């Protein structure tokens, strides 16, 4: 696949307008901070936010999106169901999806998982240590054995997800919890990665290893194919030796 | 878990009223034929159909349902979204679900899978040979190496599902196709089994090994727990700090 | 399957003879303590130890063993390769296997996993909190959200295992580590469960929830079939329409 | 990872010397035919065979091998256990492994799987249709919906393998069988791919889509890391206790 590839970072962009602490950490919005560290010669990045028309996710934007990154929290319910369905269809066709932190409760993520996506949580400045349990995975490259985030919101098990196809990171929290923090799923022709860190009141997206994981993830999630959905009536491929008339409905019976 | 347990067989019950061939094979409806071979001293079975109020799936019926069996085909679109959501919630809490044949396209199954659930198909009296690839699985007990269905609709790959947690059966068709015909998924606290055979114009649910698989499946899908969804704010569990000297060997004991 | 079923608890039984602390906690040996809490009207339990002839695992003992429980540590190298091969064959035929703590490095477990089974470790009286991440699993019944072991040896990631078929428990340790503590694998027709806790210098096998997990596990691991290995030459099952003479070797070519 | 990368194709190279039919199809040996279609500007390929010293798999050859391709059949028992152990260690450290056809019974593959790796088989010129059930997988690129091999040995289920981490191809055979023909496993830091086709008396390795799959597979199996085995005693990582007030929002920053 030729470079550059195209990433769209979607941000809810509400906390930044209401909470001065968040605005201080992410002056241009969380989506712009994320976009900034993803941009490079190989990656073209645009952003989209909730309050734009169609949440910034028009068909034409999605046509040019190889990987969608999603951060949302307080306004999941404001995301239009039609846009959710549109983005879900794209993922199943092949578009990559990287879901961050409280995006575990985004309609899009829940629709793709089919489960509750619930978890435990606590805002108490826990230290988080993110352990790398699959060091050969492309998303874990450059991460080492583990990394620490000095203060974060805690997310704890049980996490209401289907068993991940690949479990890459498990987090440890000071307060006594664990969490499956880095998980992949193959859904349709698309690749999905969920990554736990990133509460809006902490500077987590300025953390170099958090950035490295997200950068690895968008590269890993790039599509290799785009296949529209179909449920075709198919002619027999084999010259049937089996006589389709042989089993009349009256002739077949098990009683 | 004490017996008997409770199974609800849901049938669309439309083909039987419109197509005399189907009515001839299943005079009381497909759901009643399925219910009949499931009934026994350990299993209490009720049925429910599309055209009953709330499709027969009231909260009180679901309260008493350990495992729901689902057959639908021509009228998936007529199933009310609220009832789908209700049944999905029950599965995630712990209720078992057995989805049959064209139920691959039921709203309930698609919502739990998160994928297209599309497939290839052909009505041409193909012979189907169902291979048992996981002979130690509870659902495969008594099935042997394989069994044959002399005439069935063909379903072919690619099947638009998440990779099954357990792949039990793979079908071979005369016309040259293969299909993952028996698949399990763990979703939330519930167990889901999809089983391919059962086109309405064939007497497939009178086939002894098809019956045996479905009987095994409802037994396997019985819930061990029922846990309502929650996303709790949690106090820190750890009384900090940990004193490595605090637990002398003499001080620790469970007797 | 009719009860009672038969469990053999295998213990290395060396630490108990050399270390008075271990002998004090497990006066009859660790294997006898484990056997004692497993015994019941439905379960007949025998024990076997390293220094018996054939390590107590004769063909006739294995003939009567539905589930083998394994604890070993300091003397993995003294286990005879032939006995390892014998027990491995039984697991692949259908016998259940429950591997405890330092049994992660047993020849039998490593041969069934195919991987290094390495891990991090530390003897420092860490508190361990064992989180239940799959509450609907039969092995997790009665365990609740988590349980604590006040002092244990630490085992940390990365754990050199194939991705478990089911991940049931994840441990948190005071010192900052996490570990996949309860894992299942389906291998051949047998079921395998690895359970982390149980360092010999702690009274871990007197802990009520540790006992409950092991009791659940032997019940879960009971065989449904016993199928000897075979690699059969098979006659065609289908009346071949395909003419086996049609493709003479000279006639088939891709260049 | 910089190109070119290094592939070693290992061939048993016995059939070619004994059976004129095989020698006619593969005049330089099967390993040389496979090596020939893999060679390119990005891939340096060497070959190694059973009757060379150390079977051609010296430590120095393995030092320079990113991906090992393995074909063996009649002489699995002649492969030295020490060389098997050496190659297995390399896979677990990160080296890729592509196992072809009757290599399902190679000591190396069986040691990595931990299972019997048995299957059904028949030499009867069956037609094989290889279905692509995971079209977005890198190994399936360029393959399309399915491809046909006009005459091959049949391999049938049950195949005695651990459930594959990814199931990419399922084969249909004229005689009525199915087989999981393209399977991946992640083991340690290495990637393993098994690919069914390739009986020595057919020109299967001249088939363009078979070649494409193997070429895709060696690219997919390239290592991202090489990590030697270790089981370290670890100091506690956490400086205890954690002060929930210690990380004020102004104090935490990564820029």
Low-confidence stretches of chain A: 246-250
Q: Structural class per helix/strand content of chain A? A: alpha/beta
In terms of quaternary structure, the protein is homotetramer
Main sheet properties of chain A: 9 strands, mixed
Total beta strand runs of chain A: 9
Strand content of chain A: 25-35%
- Rg over CA atoms of chain A: 21 Å
- Give the averaged pLDDT of chain A, no decimals: 93
Most extensive protein-chain contact, per-chain counts: C-D, 52 and 54 residues
**How do the strands of the widest beta sheet of chain A line up side by side?**
2-1-3-4-9-8-7-5-6
SS field, number of helical segments of chain A:
7
Q: What coarse outline of chain A follows from CA principal-axis ratios? A: globular
Describe the fold and architecture:
The structure is a homotetramer of 255-residue chains. Chain A has 255 residues and is of the alpha/beta class. Chain A contains seven helices and nine strands, in the order E-H-H-H-E-H-E-H-E-H-E-E-E-E-E-H. Chain A has helices at 15-18, 20-25, 30-38, 59-63, 81-93, 107-113, 208-220; strands at residues 5-11, 43-49, 67-71, 96-100, 120-132, 146-156, 166-173, 178-187, 190-195. A nine-stranded mixed beta sheet of chain A has the order 2-1-3-4-9-8-7-5-6. In chain A, helix 5 crosses helix 6. In chain A, 56% of the residues are buried. Residues 246-250 of chain A have low confidence and may be disordered. Chains C and D meet through helix 6, strand 5 and strand 8 of C and helix 2, helix 6, strand 5, strand 6 and strand 8 of D.
């Amino acid at each position: 696949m030729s470079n550059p590839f195209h990433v769209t970072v979607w941000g809810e962009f509400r906390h930044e307008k209401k909470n001065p602490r968040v605005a201080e950490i992410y002056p241009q919005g969380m989506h712009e901070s994320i976009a900034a560290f993803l941009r490079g010669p190989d990656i073209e990045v645009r952003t989209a936010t909730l309050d734009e028309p169609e949440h910034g996710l028009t068909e034409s934007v999605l046509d040019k999106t190889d990987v969608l990154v999603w951060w949302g929290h307080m306004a999941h319910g404001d995301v239009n169901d039609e846009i959710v369905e549109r983005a879900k269809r794209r993922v199943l066709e092949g578009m990559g999806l990287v879901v961050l932190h409280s995006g575990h409760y985004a309609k899009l993520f829940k629709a793709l998982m089919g489960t509750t996506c619930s978890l435990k949580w606590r805002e108490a400045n826990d230290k988080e240590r993110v352990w790398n349990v699959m060091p050969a995975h492309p998303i874990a490259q450059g991460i080492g054995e583990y990394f620490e985030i000095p203060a974060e919101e805690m997310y704890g098990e049980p996490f209401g997800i289907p068993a991940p196809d690949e479990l890459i990171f498990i987090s440890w929290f000071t307060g006594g919890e664990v969490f499956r923090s880095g998980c992949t799923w193959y859904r349709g022709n698309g690749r999905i990665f969920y990554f736990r860190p990133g509460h809006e009141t902490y500077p987590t997206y300025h953390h170099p290893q958090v950035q490295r994981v997200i950068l690895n993830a968008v590269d890993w999630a790039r599509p290799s194919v785009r296949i529209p959905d179909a449920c075709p009536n198919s002619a027999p491929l084999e010259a049937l030796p089996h006589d389709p008339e042989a089993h009349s409905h009256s002739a077949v019976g098990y009683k």
